[in-house]
Amino acid sequence: MQKNEKKSYNSIDSTSYLCYHNIIKDIFDNSWYPIALYVAIRREGRYYSKSAAFSFSCKRNLITMEKKPFKSLDEQIELLISRGLVISDKDKAKFYLRTCNYYNLVNGYKEPFVIKGTDKYIPGVKIGDLKALYDFDEWLRGALMPLLLSAENTLKTAVTYEFTKKYGASGYLNADNFNVYNEKQKESVKRLLSEIERNIEDALQKKGSRFDCIKHYEKNYKEIPLWVLCNILTFNNIQWFYSCMKPSDKRDVCKYLYETTNIELPNRVLDGVFFLCVDMRNTCAHGQRLYNYTSKIRLPAENILADKIKTYSGKRIEISNLFLIPAALCYLMSDKKFTEFLENFVVKITKIKGDMPLDIFKNIVSSMRIEFADFFDVLLGLLAIIGGLPK
Predict the structure, then answer these.
(1) Which of 22, 151, 270, 366 is deepest in the core (most CB within 10 A)?
(2) DSSP state for residue 112 in the 8-state scheme
(3) Packing angle of the helix pair 127-167, 235-243 (nearest 10 deg)
(4) How far, in Å, CA of 157 to CA of 253, rounded?
(5) Pair 254, 112 in one domain
(6) Are residues 39 and 127 in the same domain?
(7) What whole-number distance in Å separates Cα of residue 186 and Cα of residue 180?
(8) Do 60 and 113 lie in a common domain?
């Protein structure tokens, strides 16, 4: 057979067929055997059937799941007790499991409370400790979401205003109005414009008041201004749009935001702020854990929060992970809601410290990927931002 020649079903020799037959027959029962054999042969022939592969995958999952039998609430509680978790009130524990889901509460938040490398709990850990961290995380998502929606609207408005001021209502249709100075950027702009076109086509086909403005402008003006279009573009789309803008236009967006918030925002900082707001919004929207949030990027070392920390502690601390989002939001808002969020954040995390043994709290801080020695300096920095400390 030639090097790049694809095998067909008929090209499987009898030896290979018998090999697959014998191996799979030992693993799968009669009802699943034909599908499994079919998938194996097709894989050998470099051909995949999605439906058969799905069935094959389902069977594999069924084999695995046999090791995870259903457990009643009482059995779940007994399992936790056997692993060293203190449960003094079984009715309360049962209520936690009823309302939070064992997997979300226990598997999601046990990391700081178990002995490393085991499923045994550190002596003295109570189920209420897990619930306290779970509640803090739930509050964090709920408190951040409106702030992130506000940040999204501010960033969308800044981008669309500055872009249309320079290039007109439908200037986004011209690739030359973007940063196309190298092949990588050209390809990114090309994909962006295709995504915008797809969003418009989808909006014209969908029902709902959200899309009425798109249909109105398309029908009456044969063009859709960017300030109208941005209402159906996702936050991810707008971040992508901004990343494709020319450096000089990005600087104009930064100036716009400075005039709005009176906070200086360098271009290199806004790149990170944009990414963090989008990433954190998606994390909140999908109900993922926030207290141990990790980010792919960092803000520049010189940012508002880091500067405040240095003022009060004398240390230059790199802001990372969970604390990146308040550091990012500092550049976009300074209203009462943001101030209240920072105050409540400090109060709630301090309460968790007071309610748990110090070693356990250190584990929680460690899960946040920050040195314990730096943790309270960061909290002081947050208080300084909202004027809770003397200058």
Answers:
(1) 151
(2) G
(3) 50
(4) 10
(5) no
(6) no
(7) 5
(8) no
Q: Are 95 and 73 in contact (CB under 8 A)?
A: no
Tokens of 121: 């709990």
Distance of CA 257 to the CA centre of its chain: 25
pTM, rounded to two decimals: 0.78
Which domain-ending residue is among 100, 115, 132? 132
Note whether 112 and 61 are same-domain residues: no
Residue range 224-251, pLDDT digits in tens: 999 999 999 999 999 999 999 999 999 9
As given in the structure block, the two tokens for residue 364 are 């929680």
- Report CA-CA distances (Å) from 123 to 83, 90, 103, 119, 126: 10, 18, 21, 12, 9
CB neighbour list of residue 239: distance below 8 Å, 6 or more residues apart: 155, 274, 275, 278
Q: What is the longest distance spanned by two Cα atoms in the chain?
A: 83
Q: What is the span of the domain harbouring residue 102?
A: 73-132
Half-sphere exposure of 357 (CA within 13 A, CB side): 10
Q: Tell whether 223 is covered by a domain.
A: yes
Number of domains, the chain = 3
Cβ 163 vs Cβ 245: under 8 Å:
yes
Residue 2 lies in a domain: no
For the stretch 345-359, what's the b/e string if a residue is b when 16 or more beta carbons lie within 10 angstroms of its beta carbon?
bbeebeebbeebeee
Per-residue pLDDT band for 296 (boundaries 50, 70, 90) equals confident
Domain boundary among 88, 109, 132: 132
User: Which residues are bridge partners to 126 per DSSP?
Assistant: 86
> Does residue 104 belong to any structural domain of this protein?
yes
Per the DSSP assignment, residues forming a β-bridge with 1 are none
Q: How many CB atoms lie within 10 A of CB 128?
A: 18
Comparing 60 with 116, which gets the higher pLDDT? 116
Question: What HEC string does 148-209 produce?
Answer: HHHHHHHHHHHHHHHHHHHHCCCHHHCHHHCCCCCHHHHHHHHHHHHHHHHHHHHHHHCCCH
Helix boundaries (H) for the chain: 14-27, 33-44, 50-65, 73-82, 90-100, 102, 108-109, 127-167, 183-205, 212-221, 226-229, 235-243, 247-261, 267-285, 304-313, 324-329, 336-355, 358-367, 372-385
Contact 300, 268 (CB under 8 A): yes
Whether residue 151 is found in the same domain as residue 108: no
Mean pLDDT of 12-38: 48
